């Protein structure tokens, strides 16, 4: 199977054949964007200082080395739990035109709706690989909102084949975490019934 690489700017048609469970890699612009940045845009109505249309964000709080003269280097960049941004993500996708939202763990109905309506993806970067992820960042092009501190600043990164990224919500709103819950709960009930028949004191 060929390696699937998406390059920014990403268009709707680039996502039409990508399904939950697929593994992709990203080349182009990836911007770190966490809780406070989401809150500033959605709740405080403060425009983002970077254009995200067709690009990707990463729910991440990187460790960055200051090289002086406005030059920076990513030391470590691990994913933050995406569910923390759940209440903002639908509006965030709508307002920014972002196409890829990368983080850790799953997201819910709000993000499903945003991905389906505006043709975007949520992807999971495997936790525990923050130093490896940093090797895929070729350059920090810009940084914005430094007043928020290193983890919450908007670090505009140029990446090459950043991944692996596992598609958890596709552009049709399918959610692999929710589908797995249904399947796992079904298996749990089957096993519970089987064990209950053999070990009567459970009931």
UniProtKB/TrEMBL annotation:
Coiled-coil region list: none
InterPro entries cross-referenced by the UniProt entry: Fe-S_hydro-lyase_TtdB-typ_cat, Fe-S_hydroAse_TtdB_cat_sf
GO molecular function per UniProt: L(+)-tartrate dehydratase activity
Catalytic activity field: (2R,3R)-tartrate = oxaloacetate + H2O
EC number per UniProt: 4.2.1.32
Leading EC class: lyase
Keywords for the protein's UniProt record, in alphabetical order: Lyase
Superkingdom as given in the UniProt entry: Bacteria
Residue span, Fe-S hydro-lyase tartrate dehydratase beta-type catalytic domain: 6-179
Family, as annotated: Belongs to the class-I fumarase family.
Protein name, UniProt field: L(+)-tartrate dehydratase subunit beta
Subunit comment: Heterotetramer of two alpha and two beta subunits.
């Amino acid at each position: 199977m060929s390696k699937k690489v998406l390059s920014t700017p990403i268009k709707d048609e680039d996502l039409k054949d990508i399904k939950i469970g697929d593994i992709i890699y990203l080349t182009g612009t990836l911007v770190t964007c966490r809780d406070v940045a989401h809150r500033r845009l959605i709740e405080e109505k403060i425009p983002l200082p970077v254009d995200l249309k067709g690009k990707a964000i990463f729910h991440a709080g990187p460790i960055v080395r200051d090289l002086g003269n406005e030059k920076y280097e990513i030391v470590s960049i691990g994913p933050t739990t995406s569910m923390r941004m759940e209440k903002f993500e639908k509006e965030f996708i709508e307002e920014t035109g972002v196409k890829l939202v990368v983080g850790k763990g799953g997201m819910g109905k709000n993000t499903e709706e945003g991905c389906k309506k505006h043709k975007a993806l949520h992807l999971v970067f495997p936790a525990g690989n923050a130093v490896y992820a940093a090797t895929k960042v070729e350059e920090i092009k810009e940084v914005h909102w430094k007043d928020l501190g290193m983890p919450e600043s908007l670090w505009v990164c140029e990446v090459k084949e950043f991944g692996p990224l596992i598609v958890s919500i596709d552009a049709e709103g399918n959610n692999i975490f929710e589908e797995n819950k249904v399947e796992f709960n079904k298996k749990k009930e089957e096993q519970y019934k089987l064990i209950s028949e053999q070990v009567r004191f459970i009931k």
